[in-house]
Amino acid sequence: MGGLRWAFGPQLLRQTSASVVPRRFLPEPRKRFYRNVTVAGTSDTYEVNLDHRKLKTPLGNIFNVPNYGLALAIAHEWVAVKEKIHPSFMHLTGLANTVIDNPSYQTKWDVINKTLDYMDTDTVLFRDDRSDEFIQLQAKEWDPVLDWFNTKFEVNLKPCGGLLGANIPPPAREAIRRYLLSYNMWAANGFLYGVEAVKSVILTIAAAERKISAERAVTLSRLETNYQTSHWGAVEWAHDLEKYDLESRFSAALLFIHFNTWQTTVKQKAKQ
Amino acid sequence: MKIPSKEWRLYLDMASTIKKMHTLRSLVRELRRSLPKHERVQHSPTYSYIMNQYRQNAVTDELYCREQEEMAHLAQTCATYLESSRRYIELHSEFHGRGERTVKETADMVGFKLPNDPK
Fold first, then answer.
1. Chain B residues in contact with chain A using a Cβ-Cβ cutoff of 8 Å
2. How sure is the predictor about A1, in pLDDT bands with cuts at 50, 70 and 90?
């Protein structure tokens, strides 16, 4: 009887074909095994090819995305791999894999429910009253975004402090749900990823509506951390790492949303 | 000093144009950094895509063009993504632990040979 072996890709995949990219579930990251990355496809589906192999999702489906810009960005993630492939640093690839595979059988409604759960503990609504200076800083930085949000959705969310969650009246929640439901499944997953990164639905919607940039949203989300590090000093391998991690996750989420809701029309005037 | 209304638009446009050029420069710089040495940035499809998008959205008669705003925001988000993921990987590789020693390293430390090594 043989010993226990790690399962690897072809043993788990139901279909086998010559273009399978085998996946080993071993802890050592794979080395870069391809030289060129190309994007192929027609007007509605684009694929990414590593050398001659088609890129596949973890469950073995062929990887295709509906937008050319998105396919280019994902191809760029693979191009930027120097030696070892770290899938956890490829946020756009991971997001697309989640949507294509849908391993937990989520519907758009489930995804939006999960997103709305973060409303009760939204960063912008939770004020910390440890010092007057910090209370003023929170009001100065967060109130404009909150006011814009209240105006846009015609609700009146107020900041709160303490242990109980923010009191979101049901009409407000439904208004935000209707807004999120207007996006397709791809963009909804992007929203969830962004909300999970900055822990705030308000900031994610503000960034998706182009009111604040991605960097600004992450700064607003880390307001307290920045306040403390400005006082006590920053630790490079913790604070900077967290900042770049949040920025890359959040901007990846924003890119994912934009590429999946973006439509361009160019009208050319007749030349006289 | 009064500026005639026709030239107000020029002043407003200047500020956003400078920002867009700045973002374009960052994008191309990040692209160049991530490609391997022997490849030219100008040949890559990503570069042509970015340039096409900029050219398409460069000229408009409208005072407020939604497409331009969208493209500017998208370009800025892209630049943020490229820069932050590069810096994260740099920091991670600088501070991340080495991991466990391999079996060979451990054996070399005490002078042993592995079972399948030649004598």
1. 31, 34-35, 45-46, 49, 53, 56, 61, 67, 69-70, 73-74, 76-78, 80-82, 84-89, 91-92, 94-95
2. very low
- Most confidently modeled of A113-117, A235-239, B12-16? A113-117
ipTM given for this complex: 0.84
Distance from C-alpha of A143 to C-alpha of A128, rounded to nearest angstrom = 14
Please return the burial class of B31, using the count of CB atoms within 10 Å of its CB with bins 0-12, 13-18 and 19+. Answer: buried
Residues on chain A touching B95 (C-beta within 8 angstroms): 236-237, 241
**Amino acid code (one letter) for A184:** N
| AA identity, residue B116 | N
Here the tokens at position A270 are 């007749």
Alpha carbon distance A206, A125 (integer Å): 14
Give the separation between CA A44 and CA A64, rounded to whole angstroms: 9
Residue A234 sits at the chain B interface (C-beta within 8 Å):
no
Helix axis angle for A201-208 and A241-259, nearest 10°, is 50
CB of A106 closer than 8 Å to CB of A188: no
CB A207 within 8 A of CB A217: yes
CB B70, CB B56: distance < 8 Å: no
3-state secondary structure (DSSP) of residue A156: coil
Tokens 């595979």 belong to A101
Q: Quick one: tokens of A140?
A: 């100065």
